[in-house]
Design a protein that fits this description.
heterodimer; A: alpha+beta; Four Helix Bundle (Hemerythrin (Met), subunit A); Alpha-Beta Plaits; 5 domains; 6-stranded mixed β-sheet; 5-stranded mixed β-sheet; flat; B: mainly beta
Chain lengths: 749, 161
């Protein structure tokens, strides 16, 4: 049951997302009736599932919500701005109720009450908290599958009914030989059945061959059992639990009390369930074919018996309630692809849910494979085999395959940023309401894919930045109006792929960064000296300093002083960068640039002193061999290198990392021209370049901690650990007088 | 080099008996609880970490994981170890971290009860106060019980820059 609950909540998440997406689409002018249908279906599915799990609060609220949506669907209620605002709020409440049902806790009753009243006022009818007739009314031909779900709210009521109805089941039971070979005995099962109620048994002996043809260990007998019992089908089925898969079993309710139409539905529902539950061993292709046929038949059948179902009859409820909770996910599964197809108009895609642990394990194994393959090619090179030998060609193919596998696994982990982006509309609504500002959120590039771990760790920084954009960036409506802007502020959230990284922009059309004020605050707080000469860019970047907060009143939205420095650090921890561009009066844009994956990296393997280091290829612009005449001393220990009419700082990586203390001759090494934070260029001096390689990123923090100037570690072909250089930190360290001083600070702290 | 399998580690009887693994560092004997030891392996050269504290030898590859190596000699105030083949690394689990402790040699496995562990005497030595949580008398030898979590470098708390 836990597993089913889990599936239910996973599906709820999807339905909630669908719901919100749909509502926002309608809000932005989408008039396709399919959208309304999709929204309705989402709420409806949640209600159905919630009923099966006896989540009454959820069912009650979803029902009220659904009623309003139904009115919209039927064209009785126009989807005005007002209506949509209420429905978006209701969607938030619904999401909260789902969360509470999953994690415990409680939702503010007043909030539910308000939302319920608002919804009820729209539909103009008192909110019906009960299932039954009113719910079935909501059924329409195009929601052929909902009957399975909608029956469930009745489940609770029936469960508490004092006198359970007598059901009659017809059971056909044909054991396979395997049933006997696993020491099961039909007689025992039949005796068990008898204990449930009045039973008559007929044995089918037609398959018994002549004695000469008889296989002593074969199975030839089948039984047809008629059982009158007060127990439900689950109990009956439970008896056969241990022989599941070792026999052909059908259980059909044949209660004479229900109308013929309902009977058919019953049978069909049960068949859907059986087919869905059918063991995989039974020729899989056949099962699928049957399933589809059954489902389609059910669709037709149901629409024709719609009227019959709508007639409320206690017995009918009881009958439907017998269909236990299990078929719900199965039936919904079958329904889901259709629903999606209908909703989005896209071709239905088959998906599976896989435990993330399994993908991670696979990812790790592929990582090992990459290392192993690197070791192998190194051995081969050491053995002095020529590049054209069979071994070398074989190894090349192996390398290609390894890369393909790796890309395949990465593709499994890649997810569209949509899952994070779609949390933002709600946030925007809440922050806008709390700050009294009018905000419109526009998202672009939701389909941009990036590794799941990156996505997960993106949610918090993005939340912070959007809060900031609304709280600090956008002006109050009256101020905006006075400045000749639209009252409604615009926040644009967009994602794109750019040169092997994902770039996310958070742009607002607010007032821009108030540079004099930022500067004054930074001076006030002692973050910069009073007379510091700062460029606009440097002033903008002050907001990333720890302890900087511009909100003059501390609101609960932002301004807790943990804002942008936390954002910057969490983005850096992902191997990403944050930059700002801001124009006074026109708004600010925050740009996040992140690696697509945290698992592998293309790097240049270099030698520094007696150490091997990896420099991420994405930060290297070019490599050059410094000529003695190009390198100039520049005060104290610093040196610069002349580069096409420009001087860039030359940073000795070996000294920066403390591998050596003496100044080396630049002519003996190689310089890597790199671009760091904010686009500034520097040249990193290393001793030699070994080559370019894809490396698997290994965490240093897991067992040790952060190392200044080092982003992570990797394992090279010789099995030794090599460190991956954090280019930005090295450049920044060199600018601020060395990484070592940072380290001392860190130790002192 | 040998691995300690789970089966080899006996459950302490009645909760009172503990098994400790004893090893030599400098010219003294120390021990840690055998339950925190994952494996014992020979010395392999480590990759130096920049700007690390002197007792951090660097990191090695432990079947695909990056394992930091602490030179216990330096940490406990002895001259640095000059690692050769005979030195061993005790791979220990400390909280959520796995670390390697470089020691001269593993000498013994001791089974003791808590009653046999004496409180450390009040001496001026920083090492004794910080790293030793108890003393054991074994056949005339003295073995110090190390608190492994104290041996690790402090996790960086404040941010770099």
């Amino acid at each position: 049951m836990d597993a089913l609950r889990q599936i239910f909540f996973q599906e709820c998440e999807e339905q909630l997302a669908e719901l919100e997406t749909g509502l926002l689409e309608i809000q932005s002018g989408g008039s396709d009736p399919e959208i309304v249908n999709a929204v309705f279906r989402a709420v409806h599915s949640i209600k159905g599932g919630a009923g099966a799990f006896a989540l009454e609060d959820l069912v009650r609220f979803a029902h009220v919500f659904e009623t309003v949506l139904d009115e919209v669907r039927k064209g009785k209620l126009a989807a005005s701005e007002h209506v949509l605002a209420i429905m978006l709020r209701a969607a938030d409440v619904l999401a909260d109720l789902v969360r509470v049902a999953r994690d415990g806790g409680s939702v503010d009753d007043a909030r539910i009450g308000t939302a319920t009243d608002e919804l009820a006022s729209l539909s103009g009818a008192p909110a019906a908290a009960h299932g039954g007739a009113s719910e079935t009314e909501a059924e329409e031909e195009d929601f052929a599958f909902t009957p399975v779900a909608v029956a469930f709210p009745a489940f609770d009521e029936v469960a508490t009914e004092p006198e359970p109805a007598v059901n009659e089941f017809t059971i056909t039971f044909k054991p396979h030989a395997s049933l006997y070979s696993s020491a099961n005995e039909p007689v025992v099962l039949l005796r068990e059945l008898e204990r449930l109620g009045e039973m008559s048994v007929a044995c089918d002996v037609t398959e018994v061959p002549l004695l000469t043809d008889l296989d002593a260990e074969g199975s030839y007998l089948a039984w047809t059992i008629t059982l009158k019992t007060t127990h439900c089908e689950d109990d009956v089925r439970g008896i056969f639990e241990f022989v599941d898969g070792d026999c052909d079993l059908t259980i059909e309710g044949t209660a004479g009390v229900s109308a013929a139409g309902e009977d058919e539905i019953e049978a069909l529902l049960r068949r859907i369930r059986e087919e869905a539950e059918a063991p995989v061993e039974d020729a899989a292709s056949e099962t699928i074919a049957v399933e589809t046929a059954v489902i389609e038949a059910a669709a037709d059948e149901f629409s024709s018996t719609d009227e019959a179902v709508a007639a409320p009859a206690p017995v009918h409820d009881a009958k439907l309630a017998i269909v236990p909770a299990e078929p719900l996910p199965a039936a919904q599964k079958a329904e889901a692809p259709k629903a999606d197809k209908a909703a989005s108009g896209e071709a239905a895609q088959q998906t599976i849910r896989v435990d993330l642990d399994r993908v991670d394990r696979l990812m790790n194994l592929v990582g090992e494979l990459v290392i192993n393959q690197a070791m192998l090619s190194q051995r081969l090179a050491e053995a002095g085999l020529s590049r054209s030998s069979d071994f070398a060609t074989g190894l090349d193919e192996f390398e290609q395959l390894t890369r393909d596998i790796q890309e395949g696994v990465m593709a499994i982990r890649a997810q569209p940023v949509k899952s994070v982006f779609q949390r933002m509309p709600r946030l925007v609504r809440e922050v806008a309401a709390a700050t009294g500002k009018k905000v419109r959120l526009v998202t672009e590039g939701e389909g941009t894919e990036v590794d799941k771990t990156v996505i997960e760790r993106l949610a918090d920084p993005l939340t912070h930045m959007i809060r900031n954009a609304i709280d600090h960036g956008l002006e109050k409506p009256e101020v905006r109006a006075a400045n000749g802007k639209r009252e409604e502020g615009l926040v644009r959230l967009s994602a794109t792929h750019r040169s092997g990284r994902i770039v996310i922009d958070i742009a607002d059309d607010g007032a821009g960064i108030n540079r004099p004020r930022v500067r004054a605050i930074a001076e006030d707080k002692g973050l910069i000296p009073a007379n510091a000469q700062l460029t606009d860019e440097e002033i903008d970047n002050l907001i990333f300093l720890p302890g900087f907060s511009t909100a003059s009143t501390i609101s609960d939205i932002s301004g807790r002083g943990v804002g942008m420095d936390v954002v910057k650090r969490s983005i850096q921890a992902l191997g990403g960068r944050v930059s700002i561009s801001s124009r006074p009066g026109e708004g600010s844009t925050f740009t996040l640039s992140l690696p697509l994956t945290l698992a592998v990296l293309y790097g240049m393997v270099v030698t520094v002193g007696d150490q091997t280091l990896v420099v991420p290829l994405t930060s290297i612009i070019e490599t050059l061999k410094p000529k003695p005449g190009d390198v100039h001393g520049f005060g104290g220990d610093s040196r610069v290198i002349a580069l096409r009419n420009n001087f860039v700082p030359l940073i000795d990586v070996g000294r920066e990392l403390g591998y050596r203390t003496q100044i080396v001759d630049p002519g003996a090494g190689v310089a890597l021209l790199v671009e760091s934070d904010g686009g500034a260029q520097s040249a990193l001096l290393v001793d030699a370049i070994q080559g370019q390689r894809q490396v698997v990123i290994k965490s240093l923090e897991e067992n040790y901690g952060r190392v200044p100037g080092i982003a992570a570690a990797t394992i090279l072909g010789d099995g030794r650990v090599a460190l991956i250089l954090d280019v930005d930190a090295v450049v920044a360290g060199a600018r601020n007088g060395g990484l070592a001083s940072d380290n001392l600070l860190a130790l002192a702290g | 080099m040998y691995e300690l399998s789970a089966a080899a580690i006996k459950e302490p009887r009645g909760g009172a008996a503990r098994e400790l693994i004893a090893f030599a560092v400098g010219n003294q004997e120390f021990c840690i609880d055998v339950m925190s030891v994952r494996e014992i392996r020979g010395w392999t050269p480590a990759t130096v970490l920049p700007h690390s504290q002197p007792f951090v030898r660097g990191v090695i590859n432990l079947r695909g994981a990056v394992l930091p190596i602490m030179d216990l000699a330096v940490r406990l105030g002895f001259p640095p170890t000059e690692p050769k083949g005979r030195h061993v690394i005790i791979v220990a689990q400390v909280g959520s971290q796995v670390v390697g402790l470089l020691v001269d040699a593993v000498s013994d496995i001791l089974t003791v009860t808590d009653a046999e562990i004496l409180p450390p005497p009040d001496v001026a030595s920083e090492m004794a106060k910080r790293f030793v949580s108890g003393l054991l008398a074994q056949d005339g030898r003295m073995v110090s019980l190390l608190s492994v979590d104290q041996v690790l470098p402090e996790r960086e708390r404040s941010e770099v820059q």
